[in-house]
Each structure stands twice: as structure tokens, then as C-alpha cells.
Amino acid sequence: MRIAITSDHRGAEVFKFVQDLVQLMGHELTAVPTCTGESCDYPDMAWGACHSVSEGAADAAILICGSGIGMSIAANKVPGIRAALVHDDIGAQMSRSHNDANVLCLSADMLGERLIEQIVQTWIETPFEGGRHARRVNKIMAIEQGTNPATIES
After folding, report:
1. Would you name the residues annotated as active-site residues?
2. Cα 128 to the chain's mean position, in Å?
3. Range of the domain at 32
4. How confident is the model at residue 38 (pLDDT cuts 50, 70, 90)?
């Protein structure tokens, strides 16, 4: 899998940990802008990684900021992105299996390395279940296009 990883300044240390983890898992990293500790704005970082996903240069992205909230909000403004802010491995599993999330958002301030490792591994390894969940993802995409999701049948 090709994964874009980025962070703002508060996520810089966790960024390095996640980058190493993803490479150890055998995945390819795609180049996107990231902070190396200097102050930067999370919307800029989120857009770069999410644009990689929406344009097909990356299969997925992992975004890291202090709380994860800002990255999640910014990411979900990019067409084609389904970003999930995840705090445990159950959320990681559900965001992939039920919501087909293509972007994982993490909090650098609230999660320890062991939990981050569990979340990232679960999120990457969990497949989308499809079935009734595919209909719901289609409805999410309809909202993105300005369509009432109640009009979507499949």
C-alpha cells in the first residue's frame, strides 16, 4: 500500500515513529510536505496528504496533529476523503470495515506509542466489508456532491 504521512509541528515526533512503523510493515511512503518541528498550519499539511489520496498518488494517508481534530476536519473537506479520528484499535477497525476510511487521523498529545502502533496496524490491515456498508459509503459520497443521501438506493 502507498501511504502518505504528514503532521503539523505538534505531531512531528509521532510522525517519525509512524513513518518508521509503516515502513517496517512493508508499505511504501509517498512524499508529501510535513513539519519537522517548526510551527506550521495543519490544514496545509492535511491538504497535501489528502490531495495525494484523492489524485491516486497514495492509497491512504495518516495525519497527525496535537488532538487529531483539526487534521480530521481539514481532511474531510477534500473531495473523495473519508477521514477518521481514531483513539483505539476498535475505532481503527470500524473506520475501515464499515466506513472504508482512507485517511487515519491521530492525536500526538493523547496517544502513546504502543497504542499508536496497535491503531496503525489494525487500520492498515482491516479490509472494507462492503455489503450494506457500501450503500452507506455511497451516501457519504452523495453528500459530498451536494445530493440528498436519502435518494441513493445502492
Report:
1. 65, 98
2. 14
3. 2-127
4. confident
